[in-house]
């Protein structure tokens, strides 16, 4: 999976939109090799000197595509994702939020047996400082190093990354899996990536209320992860039955609460914190 995130040739679907063009500029500034964009009907245009095509197929006539970053509006995102799957792009990163659940069910069906791995939707993407900025995670808050972050929350991802950087602790990976109920890569896949990457020496997991993902991650950590893991779960004072932020952040029962998830992670050998500030302190202290 390391090779997926370190893919050389990146395209942006929805490049000509306000969001797509802004993020394309930021990715280029961070050193990402954005070779083309896709917006049907806009072939021939250029954004920041990068050519726009009507389709991925048109790009692949002359270039290999390793990664696509999708910034297409929600009503058109399903078609864009399916186009990327059919084009056999190894890594598909979906920044778009608000994609209908039924659309993602169709996407998940298409993914089965495909050659593509999906990150998102409603994801800030992934950042490998000094290697690839794939999405909207701000590179100026990062520092290249050996810690690895995986999170459901974009804002808490940035806060954690910036806090580590301020302490002189660099990052190898910063990955946002997104907050939607139906999504691609989750904690387990990222934890496996971090565990198998010899350059990673500390793992940071950021979670929140709702769903079972963090509980499943705790079980995986207990059985399969040998590196030190630090975690913070947001939402300790969240009321049951009310959605807070992400579509997946709804506290359905006490089992999905921040308190219970924190307890299970701690029982699995994870160093848990009560705040991001405390989390950063624990990580820094562990480095001596």
Automatic annotation (TrEMBL):
Q: Which GO molecular function annotations are given, in alphabetical order?
A: nucleotide binding; succinate-CoA ligase (ADP-forming) activity; succinate-CoA ligase (GDP-forming) activity
Q: Does the keyword Signal apply?
A: no
Q: Where is the active site?
A: 246 (tele-phosphohistidine intermediate)
- Gene3D superfamilies per the record? NAD(P)-binding Rossmann-like Domain, Succinyl-CoA synthetase domains
Q: Does the keyword Nucleotide-binding apply?
A: yes
**What InterPro entries is this protein classified in?**
Cit_synth/succinyl-CoA_lig_AS (IPR017440), Citrt_syn/SCS-alpha_CS (IPR033847), CoA-bd (IPR003781), CoA_lig_alpha (IPR005810), NAD(P)-bd_dom_sf (IPR036291), SUCC_ACL_C (IPR005811), Succinyl-CoA_synth-like (IPR016102)
Q: What class of enzyme is it?
A: ligase
The CoA-binding domain covers 4-99
* This protein's UniProt keywords: Ligase, Nucleotide-binding, Tricarboxylic acid cycle
EC no.?
6.2.1.5
> Which biological processes are named by the entry's GO terms?
tricarboxylic acid cycle
This protein's superkingdom? Bacteria
A Pfam family this chain is assigned to: CoA_binding
Annotated GO CC locations: succinate-CoA ligase complex (ADP-forming)
What NCBIfam families does the database record attribute to this sequence? PRK05678.1
As for family, the record states: Belongs to the succinate/malate CoA ligase alpha subunit family.
Task: Provide the protein name.
Answer: Succinate--CoA ligase subunit alpha
Query: What organism does the UniProt record list as the source?
Result: Candidatus Microsaccharimonas sossegonensis
The organism that produces this protein has a lineage beginning with: Bacteria, Candidatus Saccharimonadota, Candidatus Saccharimonadia, Candidatus Saccharimonadales, Candidatus Saccharimonadaceae
Q: Which gene encodes it?
A: sucD
